[in-house]
Amino acid sequence: MSQRSLTQLLISQKTALVARRFTARAARLFKSAGYTNAQRAPLRVLKTAPDGMTQAELAASLQISEPTLSRRVARLLADGLISKQRRPGDGRANTIKLEPRGYQALEQSEAMAARDRDILFQGLSQEELDIALKVLSLLAARIAAPLNGALNEDAQPDEEEDADA
Q: What mean pLDDT, rounded, does the chain reach?
């Protein structure tokens, strides 16, 4: 195995490990506030939609199914963090909005998350963070792209594309 292949393998393994650990850490962090990271996600999206969203729009933006979102919405409604009202002109759809209590819960959890990120990224320069972000963004885009024969043994990356990576 070449050094490049070994490094690529190690990066893919470390990325998966870091993603799992970030998720687990967030779960522990937000458990103290009484919410999971999954419950916070709809609040973050609704914060960007002051007029609210339908449940279908919210599910699509979170890339989860409507039944999965329904359970989260029920909990957030019970806690008074969001509201749900019939959409004018469409009796079948509901508009879900972030309520003041939801803004407050989100702001508190975001402050906790920011402090935790400061701890995790301590000692890294802005240049190092920028490079990490560039690499992760590129990988995220390429992973999201269709395979289109990428697994074909004859397919070789362009030298120019390879140089960017």
A: 87
Contact (CB, 8 A) for 53 and 95: yes
Per-position DSSP letters for 16-51, written without gaps between them? HHHHHHHHHHHHHHHHTTT--HHHHHHHHHHHT-TT
Show the tokens assigned to 124. Answer: 């890294």
Residue 132 neighbours by CB distance under 10 Å: 12
CA distance 16 to 14: 5
Q: What are the Cα distances from residue 81, in Å, to 46, 48, 95, 134?
A: 11, 15, 14, 35
- How many CB atoms within 10 Å of residue 72? 22
3-class secondary-structure state, position 162: helix
For 99-130, the DSSP string reads -HHHHHHHHHHHHHHHHHHHHHTTT--HHHHH
How far is 138 from 63, CA to CA, in rounded Å? 20
> Residues 70, 56: contact at Cβ < 8 Å?
no
Which tens digit of pLDDT belongs to each residue from 144-153?
888 876 566 5
Please answer whether residues 16 and 10 qualify as being in contact, where contact means their C-beta atoms are separated by less than 8 angstroms. Answer: no
The answer to whether 96 and 84 have CB atoms below 8 angstroms apart is: yes
**C-alpha to C-alpha distance for 139 and 78, rounded to whole angstroms:** 39
Identify whether the C-beta of residue 101 lies closer than 8 Å to the C-beta of residue 81.
Answer: yes
